[in-house]
Amino acid sequence: MLQAACAAVESTTQIGEDTANLKRILEKRKQQSEQYFNSVAGRLGKNYCPGRSWEAIGHFLLHLTPKIKIVDLGAGEGLLSQLLARRAEKIVCVDNSPKMVEFGSELAKKNGFTNLSYKLGDIEAVPLEDGVFDLALLSQALHHAQHPQQAIQEAFRILKPGGKLIIIDLLEHQFEKAHELYADVWLGFSENKLYQFLKDAGFRQIEVNVVSQEAEAPNFQTVLASGVKG
Question: Is the previous residue joined to 218 through a cis bond, with omega within 30 degrees of 0?
């Protein structure tokens, strides 16, 4: 009986030690994890991290897209809209290239999107009615416009009150070959110029920020601008 009692005490002591050891191991792992994230704070977008990719982030954010009506101005083949069509109520892509419109329409049909359509037209004279859309996109299209202010004014016209315009374009640069290589009319836009475009068109709650810079020359920078129709 005494031996059994001693064994029970030893067992209890061992369990206590094991529990304490486990607690120390978990605490150490927690500290190591905190140290790692502290060390890479501010650099997560620059360093490799397993499983972290812009493609994955894009699909994650896609699920936040509400059931709204979107117009993609200067859409080209509309790859962005092909993604958004999975969630949006309706999307219309506008482009002045017949081949782009034809290709995009075929792609939408192939992907089974009945809520995505393509329309031939100029972003400076959009062939759509006033006050129809909740969101207008100008993704790397504005620097191809002859009159960018007019294109933004057209976006304002076709948006509903409270609708939003989002512009992704190049920050003003000096790479002159872009005229020849990419058929760019404008060498990007300054943050102040985009802000003034939006303000003059009647937009409110305007935000303009540089969001990325390419590592290789000529080190193009991307600017994101947005505004809400008052």
Answer: yes
42 and 71 assigned to the same domain: no
How distant is the alpha carbon of residue 211 from its chain centre?
10
**Cβ 71 vs Cβ 138: under 8 Å:** no
Q: Is 73 exposed, middle or buried (0-12, 13-18, 19+ CB in 10 A)?
A: buried
Supply φ then ψ for residue 188, to 5 degrees. Answer: 70, -175
Based on the domain organization, do 8 and 101 belong to the same domain? no
- Alpha carbon dihedral 68, 229, 192, 186, in 10-degree steps, equals 60
Cβ–Cβ under 8 Å, residues 138 and 166: yes
Each residue's pLDDT tens digit, 178-229: 999 999 999 999 999 999 999 999 999 999 999 999 999 999 999 999 999 9
Chain segment 92-144, per-residue pLDDT in tens: 999 999 999 999 999 999 999 999 999 999 999 999 999 999 999 999 999 99
59 & 129 share domain: yes
CA–CA separation, 133 vs 117, rounded Å? 14
Please say whether the beta carbons of 123 and 151 come within 8 A.
Answer: yes
The dihedral of CA 170, 172, 175, 181: what is its sign?
A: positive
